[in-house]
Amino acid sequence: MSTDIKTIKQEIKYFLLINFGLIAFISIFLFISASSLDSSKLIHNFSVMFMYIPAFSVIVVLKKFSNCEFTSNVEQFLRVFAIFTLVRIVTSIVDVFVFKSTFISSLIDTFISLYLVVLILSKGSEFKVLNLCLTKNLKKVIFVVLIFFLVTIGRSYVGAILDGSSTVSMKVDFLAIVKSFIINFCFGFNLFFGEEFGWRYFLQPRLQKLYGKRPGVLILGFIWGIWHLPLCFTLYNPKTPVYGVIHQVAFCMLLGVFFGYAYMKTENVWAPILIHLVNNGIIMLDESYESVITIDSILIGVVANAIFFLPFLFAKEYKSNNVEESSTLDL
Q1: From which residue to which does the signal peptide run (predicted)?
Q2: Is the pLDDT of residue 328 over 50?
């Protein structure tokens, strides 16, 4: 990452323009698909498509604006991901108007995930330049993933208590979680890489350079949360979209504290990738998940998440605060 403040600001500007510009464009077709009959599969397909966009935006910035050069295997990895992001955008749109099915898009997701996983694991040392070598600080990576799993269980218990449940019960189906983890690792790596390469590898250190470690990670959490806005209106909370957006932003800001801590502690993008994978897997297995958001559920969520995630703001990884006095985000 460049240490020049002007360059950092330009990189952030280009990243946000490309990222949110593509999301706005894709959302046109997302809302069209939401108005059709039996739209749930098409909407979910777009939510998967969204996950490609942050990493694609980073690749464009690094290659076209920052002129970064990498080894042939890393270049191949980035090029393949970028090309298939564009292909995936096209197929998602075609699915809405022609096929009315997500079969082709799903095949692309499966192929590209397996291809990238094999490439990155077989050429691991070359990917240190992107903080994508799995063996880098592997013990720390495993540690933060386990901590997140335990924190998630504790958060669920506290949430149930705050919700006024007379009996707090939580069945943890470890077999289902492990199965979900393996499937997502093999067939969904591209998606979780797509988000975390954008949010944690690229945007987090740049925002922290401008604002300091704690404010930077909170600003990132807000950006990450508002990025989900079209999905709140169509997939997550279509009956209460405004509350859904507020809930999503608050959740991402607090969850982002732990993600930021995990990335700084491990200096490895695999840490937030695996944590994101675990988080989404648990959410999909949670039968109590409510799509209708209320003020009460927002408050309960904020309190429960704050109890378990905010303390990580005081971890030693957040203590050194390097901020350029004259730096402001002039986008």
Answers
A1: none
A2: no
